[in-house]
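Repro case for the chain-ordering regression, as requested:
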Amino acid sequence: MSPPRRLSDTAYLSQMLPLPLALPLAELEVGQHLYWHLGNLKIHGQVFLSSWVVIGALLALVFVGTRKLERDPRGLQNFLEFLWDYIRDLAREQIGEKAYRDWLPFIGTLFLFIFVSNWGGALLPWKLISLPHGELGAPTADINTTVALALLVSLAYFYAGLSRKGFRYFEYYVEPTPIMVPFKIVEDFTKPLSLSFRLFGNILADELVVAVLAFLVPLVVPLPAMLLGLFTSAIQALIFATLAAYYIGEAVHESHH
Amino acid sequence: MDSITSAASVLAAGLAVGLGAIGPGIGQGTAAGGAVEGIARQPEAEGKIRGTLLLSLAFMEALTIYGLVVALVLLFANPFA
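-- result from build under test --
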């Protein structure tokens, strides 16, 4: 493997772009990480740091918002109740009236973590904190995070189906005809693959587009791309949560013969 | 990285995004057209149509993003370099 490149590396970019540019404003490092060694494992420290910030922010928000509960919700409690309603409607629509309560916390956690990660990566001024290697950003722009989330969804829907229906869960594989068995098995692999790649690709693409635009024209021009990035990253969080709920709903769904 | 490999990688990265954008482009156009038609017929359903449209547009966009992921792997983490 060649050493990872920095997009801001003038030597590399001047080969591609005949521009006399070396702006310090636009820096994006792809494939550079702050490695922490844990036994034999090499882990990406910058992802851990930014996820901890996201988790801490979410915990603080929920803690402060539910400390003094009132019958007439105001301020933060009102906002949290709105979020709860939103997530409950999402889960109920996809999973169904009978089983959605068990999975509401899971779906809600996925949605909030991904949403706050995406927006936090775009909105917080991470550049103020400089690391020896790599850079802080959205935790979801690292493939490891998204693969972990997608595998969690896989485990969740298997568990949901098996715990609700027992071995009758595997009837799902031979419905409507046994010819479907290979396709349904392949589907079990493509579901986490597409879930993780969709989220990772979208978030990284947003960051790259903004970085490339900021490299070419550092002022004003990247703003619309940033706004579009905020919009798509919100939609991606919604899609991830919706699909997770849909897969769980598919697993617990009772077919009527 | 020797020059043949880098040339092939850069070319392939361009093709991956360029070709991958054709299908979703057509699909998004069809979907948006259908949504406009639906809103013209039934303006009161605009909110619902917009929500569904945005969700399905994001699904189609994911296909191009897969191409982009391949392109990024070729450019920044090339396994053959």
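Ordering looks correct now. The first strand of chain A starts at residue 35 and ends at 38.
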